[in-house]
UniProtKB/TrEMBL annotation:
InterPro entries: aa-tRNA-synth_II/BPL/LPL, ArsR-like_HTH, Bifunct_BirA, Biotin_CoA_COase_ligase, BPL_C, BPL_LPL_catalytic, HTH_11, Transcriptional_repressor_C. The gene is birA. One of its GO terms (cellular component) is cytoplasm. The keyword ATP-binding applies. It comes from Planococcus versutus. The lineage of its organism: Bacteria, Bacillati, Bacillota, Bacilli, Bacillales. HAMAP family: Bifunct_BirA. GO terms for biological process: protein lipoylation; regulation of DNA-templated transcription. Pfam families: BPL_C (PF02237), BPL_LplA_LipB (PF03099), HTH_11 (PF08279). This is Bifunctional ligase/repressor BirA.
Length: 325
């Protein structure tokens, strides 16, 4: 059974918006026999698609499974670049590793890697990222912006704004951003972003934007050591969230805002970022590799650098740190 043809048939059926398509019509369109069409229907059912077979009318897809397979994402996806190519694996070590590999093999701008679970998901500062199977969105996006490498860190901030907008659109939740890359709900982390760079003497070759979004976990789905600091959209809203819809929204806003950043700079996005921030105006402790600074977070610069004023009145630019509030 050619699975690509199975998915093409499913796509055709989903695009017919609820109308049944006859076995004969599908057979003619795909140049195969009606028996072959019937086998593809069985294959889809095995994959969790619910198919209604209407007498004399044909087949209709009633529901699709809760997976992040390309077909379930690409139907209804309103982007031009991001997500036009999606690499999906049921399980992997880390989508970052796959995305780095694909980027080296010249995968186009906007390629997305999605998985249901990661065995070695990684976070910032070489931390482990908990990736419960089928409960979250574990994804890496390959971007190839034509900007100098020093502009790379802002992509993390821009992506954070995109994710907040997506969560707001798909749920009734109002997430906040903790500098630089944590998205919080009720003070607990529901999303992390890890931006990695492939560059050479010619500049940025690829940005690998890794997104870990806790969607439908319950408390016990998290490892014990993060249960006190992590949360999911479901835990806060009390409702199971449609992961496919959420991925489409994240891809849409990521394309919109990264393009806005490339075309118009950080100005508008900085205002948006600050409007979502929990950090700005607050007393914070910034833990860096060798030292810690305490003071008030006054804002971010046009480069996305956190501006921290210590008690002695000095203003410090913080490029990378763990922030405690
Ligand atoms: C952080 O807050 O420390 C960043 C977490 C990023 C996790 C995502 S999950 C998808 C992608 N693959 C990984 O291994 N990490 C990122």
């Amino acid at each position: 059974m050619n699975i690509t043809v199975t998915y093409k048939i499913a796509k055709r059926m989903l695009e017919s918006t609820g109308e049944a398509l006859s076995g004969q019509q599908l057979a003619d369109e795909f140049g195969i026999s009606r028996t072959a069409i019937w086998k593809h229907m069985k294959e889809l059912e095995e994959k969790g698609y619910e198919i209604e077979s209407v007498k004399k009318k044909g087949y209709r897809i009633v529901s699709i499974p809760d997976t992040l397979e390309p077909i379930t994402i690409q139907i209804g996806l309103k982007t031009k670049r991001i997500g036009q190519r999606i690499e999906y694996v049921e399980s992997c070590t880390s989508t970052q590793i796959i995305a780095h590999q694909l980027a080296q093999e010249n995968a186009p701008d906007g390629t997305v890697v999605l998985t249901e679970t990661q065995t070695a998901g990684r976070g910032r500062m070489a931390r482990k990222w908990d990736s419960a199977a089928h409960k979250g969105v574990w994804m890496s996006i390959i971007l190839r912006p034509n900007v100098p490498p020093q502009k790379a860190p802002q992509f993390t901030l821009v992506t954070a704004v995109a994710i907040v907008r997506a969560i707001e659109e798909v749920t009734a939740l109002q997430p906040k951003i903790k500098w630089p890359n944590d998205i919080l709900l009720n003070g607990k982390k529901c999303t992390g972003i890890l931006t990695e760079l492939q560059s050479d003497a010619d500049g940025i070759q690829a940005l690998i934007v890794g997104i870990g979004l806790n969607v439908n976990q319950d408390k016990e789905d998290f490892d014990l050591e993060v249960q006190g600091i992590a949360t999911s959209l479901k835990m806060i809203s009390g409702q199971t969230v449609n992961r496919q819809e959420l991925v489409r929204a994240v891809l849409f806003y990521t394309e919109l805002y990264t393009q806005m950043y490339i075309d118009e700079g950080f100005g508008m996005l900085k205002i948006l970022w600050e409007s979502y921030s929990t950090t700005i105006g607050q007393p914070v402790r910034a833990r860096m590799t060798n030292h810690t600074l305490e003071g008030i977070a006054e804002g971010i610069s046009d480069d996305g650098v956190l501006q921290l004023r210590t008690l002695d009145g000095k203003l410090h630019g913080i490029y990378s740190a763990d922030i405690e509030m």
